[in-house]
Amino acid sequence: MESHSEDSAAKLLRAQTHTGNHVLKFIYSMSLKCAVDLNIPDIIHEYGKPMPLSKLIASLKIHPSKTCFIYRLMRILTHSDFFYEHDVTENELEVRYVLTDASKLLLKDHPFSLKYLPQFALHPVIINSWFQFSTWFTNEDPTPFHTANGMGFWDFAAHEPKFNDLFNEAMATDSRLVSSMVVEKCKSVFEGLELLVDVGGGTGTMVEVISESFPQLKCVVFDLPHVVGDLQETENIKYVGGDMFEAIPHADSIMLKLILHDWNNEKCLKILSNCKEAISSKGKVIIIDMVMGNKKEDRELTETEIFFDMVMMITFNGRERNEKEWASLLFSAGFSNYTITPTQGLLSIIEVYP
Ligand SMILES: C[S@@+](CC[C@H](N)C(=O)[O-])C[C@H]1O[C@@H](n2cnc3c(N)ncnc32)[C@H](O)[C@@H]1O
């Protein structure tokens, strides 16, 4: 009887720890954003060797009364693998920090820098949407973003140039990494194409990298007028403003990178049927998006997929899809066949044929 109640107490305490841990998970992301705001990854990088805490503190533009708190900020970020303690020592001020692979990606000048990701994902406009999550369940708004900001994401971006620039920068950094990887590892996807339209192509980062590797390929970046309006065309890249729900420029191939996960099935069917009209019978649509559940054994990847699915629901009324859901969508839009090539990261390439 006694041991039974001890078990129950242990279970309760474990449940309490589990709940506390999950309620407090935002502390990881806010601490990371704080470190990026304070420029900590770049300061450690520029030091060129393991950086003692005392030197790090001396390099930061912070109020003298706050220097004693930096060790604790660094401790949580070391725990979450963004920094590494070079020589573990009892004396806090002698602790020396180096970057990990994850914090190297937050450096300003890293070619695939993700420095805008925390700035965008933790922007008050986005965070306020999360505060409206439960209210949204009780009203008719399409997304918590609507409830928080009085309009949908794309209208908001069109009216707020600074927010729009931050979003486009965050997307462009993702595209730099994905495009280099796709061009290197999945060259065959683009071989033999003559004209590629990148629908919802943002500021054109993806096609810039593709067209460097395929100089014979003509590319069109098609996006909303406020996104492409001021961009200068080059010999191989044209920018066209428009609405993909109205019509899409004709091409032998169309790319949709991180577009369909922004929309519900009904809107995706409209986009896909406009794509089908825009390509010839020998053309194809190249979807670069997530296929959920492909690598269930990878817990961190699965968690990230689920996080993204929630972000799509809260922000855009969109969703991430598993292979069955993709197949159903593509066949409902009238396409006859598709192939999926997973990449090593979160995204897959789905080549879709009429
Ligand atoms: C998630 S972003 C993806 C950007 C880019 N493909 C990438 O992966 O970096 C979605 C893009 O769709 C564009 N978009 C939204 N609604 C659109 C519409 N009705 N017609 C054309 N583009 C649209 C947005 O402006 C934005 O650039």
UniProtKB/TrEMBL annotation:
Domain O-methyltransferase C-terminal positions: 130-336
One of the protein's GO biological processes: isoflavonoid biosynthetic process
Tagged with keyword Phosphoprotein: no
Catalytic activity annotation: a 7-hydroxyisoflavone + S-adenosyl-L-methionine = a 7-methoxyisoflavone + S-adenosyl-L-homocysteine + H(+)
GO molecular function annotation: isoflavone 7-O-methyltransferase activity; protein dimerization activity
Record-linked PROSITE patterns: SAM_OMT_II
Entry coiled-coil feature ranges: none
Keywords associated with the record: Methyltransferase, S-adenosyl-L-methionine, Transferase
Enzyme Commission number(s): 2.1.1.150
Active-site residue list: 261
InterPro entries (UniProt xref): COMT-like (IPR016461), COMT_C (IPR001077), COMT_dimerisation (IPR012967), SAM-dependent_MTases_sf (IPR029063), WH-like_DNA-bd_sf (IPR036388), WH_DNA-bd_sf (IPR036390)
Domain O-methyltransferase dimerisation: 22-109
PANTHER family named among the record's database cross-references: O-METHYLTRANSFERASE
Listed name of the protein: isoflavone 7-O-methyltransferase
Organism: Sphenostylis stenocarpa
